[in-house]
Amino acid sequence: MVDTVQTRSEELPDGRVDTILGDDLAQSQYVNDDLAPVPLKRRTWSTYSYAALWIGMSHNLATWALAAGLIAVGMNWAQAILVIAVANVIVLVPMLLNAHAGTKYGIPYPVFLRSIYGVRGANFGALLRAFIACGWFGIQTWLGGSGVAVVLGRVFGDWWDNAGTVAGEKWTLWVSFAIFWVLQMLLIWKGMDTIRRFENWAGPAVLAVAIVMLIWIVTKVGGFGPLINQPSKLGWGAEFWKVFFPSLMGMIAFWSTMSLSIPDFTRFSKSQKGQMIGQGLGLPTTMTFFSVLAVLITSGGVALYGEVIWDPTQLIGKFDNTFVVLFGVVTVAVATLAVNVAANVVSPSYDFSNAFPKIINRRTGGIITGILGIVIMPWRLLENANTYIFVWLDFYGGLFGAVAGVMIADYWFIKRRRIEVAECYRRDGHYWFTGGWHVKAVVATVIGMIMAVGGANSPLDAQGNKTGPFPVDGFIPFLKVFWPYNWIVGFVVAGGLYLLLSRLLRDRRP
């Protein structure tokens, strides 16, 4: 008779835990190769890997559009940079706190959620993250496709730029969108190591392009004066602060997706110190610096063309120098391709796999993400800066703030960073709770979400018309007061309520 190999788990002196799943869990319906803990020998990402990851993810078309969008809603360059810098410092906190579990245990985000929401309940937070990532995948792909259209327009000339329309857009833009989509699907198929190597050079390259563009536009307008002297339409009084907080929540929401699913990346880290330093150096510094470049270039565009062009590919496309256009758009589009795969495909592929471990693997999950990214119609989310920031970002930011609050409260204050990894893959185990669901965590999260976004209301344009899908008075009018602070409200309410429920009620165990 052959003895079965049992699951083993060993904690190393540096605090990391090396867990190898044995035969006792090999047939579990909650295990596959992508969801299993990463063995110690495969944890090879260094400090530079994480710094490069964030350099690559920060330097892309969506970041540029985000920064330029603040100019479009009436801020000047200084106000826009203030919002972005403060937001990046704030979002770094939950990023590092949630990253810890990935590095310590080698587990991805959806498996981490099993220890909090239950083995089945983890799908609540995982699929929510996945569907939002699909939206982001579509947005980044649309922006990248717009860049491809600009480049091909310079190559093919008037017949490309003046093509007929299909469903409200030029058919050449739809073709460009499809080209960019296919390129990403090919990169997904190559896997995580290819993504890491791609990020190592794509991020620095696009930063160089932005610097060259800034020099070019400063030369064109005759110095920095026209860039920094563009006046604020809001001033520094009540009108500015009325826009400041919703904008700040939108900036936090921009990376709130990654602040949840960062274990998907830190599970490959060589050490806690490496991922913390890499992220601490990579996220707030490079995101803010690139945003400064984007804001100044957008302000220069106002000085040159008399209007705010917040879509970066359209702004670059207006330049007279063909070399600048081709070099700039191609490089920024390549970097966008890299960040889109890293930030918006890797994590949802794990999330979809978590829902159906024996059916969906990383590659299949990536294809699902790509298809849903089209279905969500990203061109609608990019119709104007108000919709992009105050509707799309603010709404899902409030939802994710609640999830982040419960995750951090559970891991750092309830479990005190101790997870029984094998139980995350076991039916009727320690994290099965009630039928696979941890009711306290779900209740706290849902209440936090309602408080954060229940008062969601659409901003009004200059003519008094609402610019988004929400009722002007909010879904639940008395919660309207919380809407401008949605991410913070969700985080504080859900996290605080979860700690209270954990003190008052005992968990039900199988």
Describe this entry's structure for a reader.
Helix content is 67%, strand content 2%. By secondary structure, it is mainly α. The model has no long low-confidence stretch (mean pLDDT 86).
Short structural description:
The chain contains 21 helices and 4 strands.
Quick tags:
510 residues; mainly alpha; Hydantoin permease; two-stranded antiparallel sheet; two-stranded antiparallel ribbon; 21 helices; 4 strands; Uracil/uridine/allantoin_perm; NCS1; membrane; transmembrane helix
Percentage of helical residues?
55-70%
CATH homology superfamily name: Hydantoin permease
The side-by-side strand order for the widest beta sheet comes to: 1-2
Order of helical and strand elements: EEHHHHHHHEEHHHHHHHHHHHHHH
The beta-strand count equals 4
Q: Count the helices. How many?
A: 21
Q: Main beta sheet: strand number and arrangement?
A: 2 strands, antiparallel
**CATH topological fold name:** Hydantoin permease
What gross morphology would you assign?
A: globular
CA distance, first residue to last residue: 31 Å
Secondary structure category: mainly alpha
Overall structural domain count: 1
Q: Determine the strand fraction and express it as a percent band.
A: under 5%
Q: What is the rounded Rg?
A: 23 Å
Going by CATH, the architecture would be Orthogonal Bundle
Low-confidence segments, ≥5 residues, pLDDT <50?
Answer: none
Given this structure, which CATH class is correct? Mainly Alpha
Arithmetic mean of pLDDT: 86
